[in-house]
Amino acid sequence: MYILTQVTLAELEKSTEMFRQLADPNGANNALSQVLYGLALRHGWGCPKSEEQAVTYLSAAASNSASIESQALQAGMKKGGAAKGELVLAIFELGNCFRNGWGVKKDPAAARQYFETAANLGDTDAMNEVAWCYLEGFGGKKDKRGYKLENFCYASLGHHGLVSRASILCDSHHSCAWSSWELLFVQLTNPVASMFSSQLLNIIDWPNRKEAN
C-alpha cells in the first residue's frame, strides 16, 4: 500500500517531535518511535541532525524490542512477534550505520553481521544486503553459494519488509520529505498505532520535476 501525501515542513517537525516524546526511555519508551526518531536524527528529518544520537536511539530500540520479544516468549507465545518488526528494523538500520559510518566508525564486519541477523529474522531488505555482502566480500569472505541462497529467499518472499522503509528526499532547495517505500505495519500491537498511521506521512516532493503536460 502506497500513500503519497504532501505535507509542510512544520507538519514534518510536528511528527518528529511526537516520535521524540514517545521514544523517551523514561516515558512511553516505544520501540518503533525510537527507530523512527533515530532515523530522523540520522538524516535531519524535521529536527537537527545528530548521527551519534541516532545510533543511541536505534540501539535502544533494538534492546527494547528484544526485551519485549523475550517477555512474549516467556508468556507463552511460541514465536514471539510482539515487537519483531521494530526489532528487525532497528537491527537493519544499525547495520546501515556501520556500513556508512553514520554516528560510528565504519565497520564492514559489524555491518554484515547486523544484516545477517536481520535477514535471519526474515527481513527481505536485509537479505538483499547480505547477498551483496557475499557477492562483493564486504565485511568478510566472498560466498557465491550464500549469495545465490539469499537472492533465492529474497525472490521467494517478495520485496515486503516487516515495517516501513523510510528515507529522506532533499532537493537542491533543501525541501524535506518523508518517503516510505513499504508501508506495511505488520502486527503493530502498541497502543499508539493509530497515531503512527496519521503522523507517519509518506510524501514525494519533486519541485524540479517537469509537468506531465
Automatic annotation (TrEMBL):
Pfam families: Sel1. GO terms for biological process: negative regulation of G2/M transition of mitotic cell cycle. This is Sel1 domain protein repeat-containing protein. Coiled coil: none annotated. One of its GO terms (cellular component) is cell division site. It comes from the Eukaryota.
